[in-house]
Amino acid sequence: MNFLTNIQNLLYWKNGNNKKIKSFWKYLIYLILIAFFIYCLIDLNFFTIYSDNLIDLKNTIYKFFLFNTFDEKNFVNNSLWMINWIYFSRTIQYVVLGNFFGFIFSIFTAFYSTKKFHKNKYAILLVKFIIIFLRVLPVFVFISLISNSFSGVLGASLIIFWFTWIWLSSYLTNLFENTSDVEYWQMIYSGKSKLKSFYKNIILRNRPKIILMYFLSLESNIRWTTVLGAVGISGIGFLFELYQSKNEYLAITILYLFILIFSLEIIMLIFNKWLFNAHRLKTNSIMLNNINNRKLHIVLLILFLVTILISVGIIKDFQTQKINFHNFFRTLIRFLSPNFSDYNKSEFNGLLWTWRIIKQSYVCLIISLFCSLTYSIFLSEKMNHWIISYIFRTVLSFLRMLPSIFVFYLLNIFLDSVGAMSWTLAFTSFRGLTKYISESINSIDIKYFEYYKIMKKNKIFTYKKLVLPFIKKDLISYIQLEFENTCRDSLFYGSFTGWGLGNLYIIYSKKDDIEKISAILIPITIMFVLFELISMYLRRNRR
Predict the structure, then answer these.
(1) What angle do the packed helices 207-228 and 468-497 form, to 10 degrees?
(2) Tens of pLDDT along 211-266?
(3) If you average pLDDT over residues 131-149, what whole number do you get?
(4) Which domain holds residue 420?
(5) Residue 399 maps to a domain
(6) Distances, alpha carbon 62 to alpha carbons 25, 68, 158, in Å
(7) Residues 379 and 254 in one domain
(8) Beta-carbon neighbour count of residue 420 at 10 Å?
(9) Does the keyword Mitochondrion apply (predicted)?
């Protein structure tokens, strides 16, 4: 105990109940992080450009905008407009279905895994263990289990359900842990049930972020389907896999994606303006809350009805889908029997590839974080003229509509696979972080911004003194989750970039060598476990 106390005294200084790290150690940590960033940047060949291939990039972009509507080799006498519509309609159906039920499940699991909402610690630990256990499993484990056991759109729906459930559970748990529970317990002590108090005092208070997370997960899942074709999942990912070396046939597919994601952005904007903005009504807060609560009920009803209408056709098809639980348990048993025979070869060593993924994800996170914090300054209408905010939001919306796999194909023309993949991951992380940071800024009361304007403070000063301290807790949570998400993306994107553990998964899965897949995934699984433990420790100390 004395040893730990001495360590704390060495690292921290105390001022009453406050504890801060000493300046020497703070700057030393910064120096180490910067040095590691530079090392990783050089090691990953981020800036190695093949200038001879820049002409190919120009030709590829030119061919892309030709909008080829026929591919006689793969789809005889069929327009690519119709082919894309068939794949898109199917994709939308299973994505909406899986996303909706994953969203509902995530709310309940986040509620039952939030410590401050319950006194029965054993039940909390059980739910937390289940969620953490499922979260730390690499995505390829679940894809292998599902693809070997459930066919067609049923398997695709389950994969989207799993993505949404596990992804949103973490974000919602962080959100709930940063929400005051005073009113929650007051209502319970007055005789109301936990679920009713949870809905009234937690869900309604956080409704903007919760609804936003629903649509962001829906948008994220739609973009995920563009790369799922690399691992054999049906949907628009099949077209990206088919035309990975023929980008001129992807223009129609990109246009469909553009329209779909643009529609989601418009829906989020409408909901934000109609449902969540404080109305300038001359009325009391109780009446205003009742109005907004009724609006929320309408929104939830609309979401449910739209989900049923879109998914009804695909639910009927579930009856014809093959389900093989024998294969499920057989695959699971094979995962529990890892084969390390290839570990003596560096190109098949899961530990070495995990270290490379860490380096790649770290560089991508630093680049995306810097760009996101800078870009988000211009997104908020509370800090800028609405025209400036609108322009930057439009550009961000356009960037969000570009599928990551398409960005990789373009970059890979003049960058090697590692560099192209790294910049694609940084680009993907930037889009997500910027959106979350922007929403956190918008949650700040406008009166604080007005105060700084009256004091004639510039944007940089306002951002430093008001915005960053206000969003600090949310930002730390976003950084933690984004680093893990980038590691997971790096793992998965390797399946279509020909690099890393994802590439090894494709090689071994073609040979049906589940035991070797298990072996290469063990180091990165341990890494995900460490992420969870570190995240839990930081959350506990931040409260």
Answers:
(1) 20
(2) 888 888 888 888 888 877 766 677 888 888 888 777 778 888 888 888 888 788 77
(3) 86
(4) 344-542
(5) yes
(6) 53, 12, 38
(7) no
(8) 20
(9) no
